[in-house]
Amino acid sequence: MFAKVRNASMVFLCAMFLAACSSSGTFTMKQALIEPINNQKTVSIWVKSDKVPESEKEDAKKACSSLQEKLYARLVSEGLFKSSVIYPNKGDYSLEVDVLGVRLVSNTARLWLGVMAGASGIETNVLLRDETGKVLAEFNADGSSATHPMSSESGSDNAVNELATEIAQALKQR
User: Fold this and answer.
1) Hey, what's the signal peptide range on this chain (predicted)?
2) In the chain, at which end, N or C, are there fewer CB atoms within 10 A of the end residue's CB?
3) pTM of the model
4) Taking a C-beta distance cutoff of 8 angstroms, is the pair 122, 143 a contact?
5) CB 132 within 8 A of CB 140
């Protein structure tokens, strides 16, 4: 009996450790892409944080800047668009990323509190519009870092990277 409990406990602890070692992200479509994206066109990227609570404004500013940089390169490198520009520059498409919530865990907190510090995370609502302003797709996307302090994916940059990946994946949905 004791051996079964010990084995079950070890399996549970290993599962918790492994789950804490990787970053992740998700997206949920509100409106699927209604027409294919012309990958020979330009996208204007606008990452904003108007809806973030005041207590998260400083973290949101950092997250928005980092996300904008990641999307700038990612959307072109994955073949979704020919080129990208940053709002207020105009493109054939407009990608509006509205940050709804941010939680960035510092390296100091991660070292002192370990897994108890939790994951860095970013939650967004995303709209893709054509040049006439028509909404082509709308979805929620989020990204979070690993929680384990010894994981190579525990930094807040990993949460942003996961979010950029999810946005690109959602735009590939047809």
Assistant:
1) 1-20
2) N
3) 0.79
4) yes
5) no
